[in-house]
Amino acid sequence: MLYARLQTVGGMPAPAGAVRRLVEIVAGHPGFAGLCLMEAVEETAAGALLTLWRTAEDARLAVDRTEAARGGPRPVTLHSDRIYEVESAEEGPDAELPPGAAVLLFFDGPHDDAWLESARFAQRERIGPALRTVSGLVRGISLYDPEERSSAVVSLGTSLEALARAEKAVNSTELLPGEDPALLTGPDRAVVHRVSAYLGAPV
Fold first, then answer.
1. Do the Cβ atoms of 119 and 151 come closer than 8 Å?
2. 62-121 residue pLDDT tens
3. How would residue 201 be classed by pLDDT, with cut points 50, 70 and 90?
């Protein structure tokens, strides 16, 4: 299992030199498995830093290790910080291309078992197969916080247009037998970003 640390940040865009230095430091930490730094398209929305780790302990220690290695102020202002389990990480049709855009979907908890089972079924059986046909999609990562019983989904595409095609594909799917519309609530928040830095995440 992989673990993710998802931080929402202000002060974007940071100076290019500071971003490069941050990426170099984080990529050198034990257990590092991937990174995506994102600048929100809307000026009023927060940017985000997603990092992936081999163990929960490495995810937990990442910030302290970065502070010790950097020896200076953050290039961005931290708004929120949460560690998730990575439930799935799937390559898209254009997984070999670097992402230029991302959308973060937040499903605030706590959710009960019926909601979680329904969401996982929909992702596995209906949404995932639809997205595998969308050109321009690079990767999709589903995250789960077992303490808060909340979820998040990160979709990476080559462009904002690719993400729009993905949204249309998902919205065009029909519910499968046994799916309960009452349990299929949409995200509490959706934030569209441009990708500022990316180091490929494993599947």
1. yes
2. 999 998 998 766 767 889 999 999 999 999 999 999 999 999 999 999 999 999 999 999
3. low
CB neighbours of residue 128 within 10 Å: 15
Do you find a cis peptide bond into 13, omega within 30 degrees of 0?
A: yes
Whole-number Å distance between alpha carbons of 90 and 69: 32
Instruction: Give dist(CA 35, CA 154) in Å, integer.
Output: 12
Position 158 scores a pLDDT of 98
The answer to whether the predicted template modeling score (pTM) of the entire model surpasses 0.90 is: yes
In the three-class reduction of DSSP (H, G, I as helix; E, B as strand; rest coil), residue 92 is classed as: coil
- The C-alpha angle with vertex 159 and arms to 187 and 40, in degrees rounded to 5, equals 55
CA distance 2 to 105: 19
- Residue 134 CA to residue 157 CA, distance in Å, equals 10
The CA distance from 191 to 103, in Å, is 6
Phi-psi bin for 71: left (phi > 0), alpha (psi -120 to 50), beta?
A: left
The Cα-based distances of 53 to 28, 30, 155, 180 in angstroms read: 12, 8, 18, 34
Instruction: Give the pLDDT mean for 121-148.
Output: 95
Joined tokens for residue 177: 């037998």
pLDDT of 97? 95
Question: Tokens 């998040």 — which residue?
Answer: 152
**Rg of the chain's alpha carbons, rounded to an integer?**
17
- Answer yes or no: are the C-beta atoms of 84 and 144 closer than 8 Å: yes
Specify the residue for token string 């990480």.
89
